[in-house]
Amino acid sequence: MDQKLEHIYEESKTIGSLKEYIVKEKRTVKDLLHDLNLDDKYFAILVDGKKARLDTEIAQGQSIVVLPRIAGG
Predict the structure, then answer these.
(1) What does the domain layout of the chain look like in residue ranges?
(2) pLDDT tens by residue, 7-45
(3) 52 closest CA partner among 39, 61, 65
(4) Considering the entire predicted model, what is its pTM?
(5) Which superfamily, per CATH, for 5-68?
(6) Which residues pair with 27 in a beta bridge?
């Protein structure tokens, strides 16, 4: 990971984990997923509780949630 993100917290849960980062430079959701080595087709992103597009810009202090997409059959 490059210096555009600073990892500050991690907690393992029974299902998944919680990780917290500080974004150090202007980033889009697409940039953030790339920085975290995540493929956008497998994750949904919430910015301040609202669904975000890949071109959504992330500002200082915003809350970002990365959720796995669930498929059923």
Answers:
(1) 5-68
(2) 776 777 666 677 777 787 888 999 989 988 888 888 888
(3) 65
(4) 0.74
(5) Beta-grasp domain (3.10.20.30)
(6) 58
